[in-house]
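Protocol step 4 of 5: obtain the predicted structure for the target chain.
Materials: sequence only (see below). No template structures provided, no constraints applied. The aim of this step is simply to have a reference model before the mutagenesis design in step 5. Sequence pasted as it appears in the construct record:
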Amino acid sequence: MLKRSRWTTLGLFCALSIPAPAAAATDPVTEWNLIAVSETLSASPTQAPAVQTRTMAIVQVSVHDAVNAITQQYLSYSSPGHGPSGAGAEAAAIGAAHHALVSLFPAREGALNDLLASSLATHGVSEFDPGLAFGQSVAATILARRATDNAAAAQFDYTAPGAGAAGVWTALGNTPALLPGWGNVTPWVLRSGSQFRPDGPPALSSETYARDYDEVKLIGSFDSSQRTQEQTDIAHFWRASPTAIWNGAMTQVLEGGNLDLSSKARAFALLYLAAADASIACWDAKYTYNFWRPLPAIANGEADGNAATAGDLLWQPLLLTHPHPEYPSGHTTNSGAMNTVIRLLFGNAPGVPIQLTFTGITREWLTLSEGLQEVVDARVYSGIHFRTSDEVGARQGRQVARFVLAHALRPTTGEWK
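Step 4 output (structure tokens):
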């Protein structure tokens, strides 16, 4: 039996996120995206990052399908057909987003109704515009499709096969495994959650494992003397969820461009189709390999069969250890997917610096690749992931994003499909 270190649990199992304000926006697609992000990140009970991507996908796909049923610029996800005669695309966007959010957050109906009235007035949309009811019906269709996607059955009691052995993930304290069934949630675009399942983590006896072990032990400890202040800041910045960070990046890129309503709706929908499927793919791999986290690994370094890994029972990570298996990293998988969507749509250097503030820390990137590399590093600085897990997660996310962009919401050729 492995030694039990002093353990740290994740009080709020999802990464700390600061809700994006529902700030004034020049168009209803962006406005309701900000509203949706705010509602999702501030939801009670708190949603795990994987659940956040599903929530946002429901909203953004609903908006895309409603808008593009009228404009017919891009193929739809749910094939709603033509919008009704006289329906406005702005009204459809508002109706779809509002209906999806009220259905997902019924306790917020009053506040969302107030936002609806304000939005209609701001954009000069009549409450009698047929696009409003049409958007609601499109959202109802998406919600019905996802009602049987297995998300509701993803949380259950779980013990990893071989728990207690070296290399095998074991729950810390009384904190249950987080969403062990999320890998079985029906994907949005992927053929299955295992479609891009990576090979397993490095063998405990390998040089790669020893390298990763020594790195996180040195630079990811709570009181590391080797981690710089900037590296510590980076670790804390990336406590925010992928939804918070990459939605902020997408919004800033869109603000710097000149996209029409349909293209903005599509961009947000693709962002969350990729994010939602990346979460499913990541969780499929996590609970297939059940690899241990740095905290128990370092506590049991003398028992892993690798002479190059010295154990330390007193070692603690900078940030709280999450209650799910280590490999691959969920944050880098989501980030790889969302970053790649933005990069493939707008280029690695989209023409505007991306400047974001979360957890009281501001980061700025001139290229999207800078942001993705930063999160790979951040999870090592945090002491909660090995570098290989971060790199594999980012690669898996990129694979998911490329598949989504190749198969979903393609431009039309001028005729309805």
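Step 4 remarks: DSSP finds 13 helices and two strands in the chain. The chain has a mean pLDDT of 94.
Proceed to step 5.
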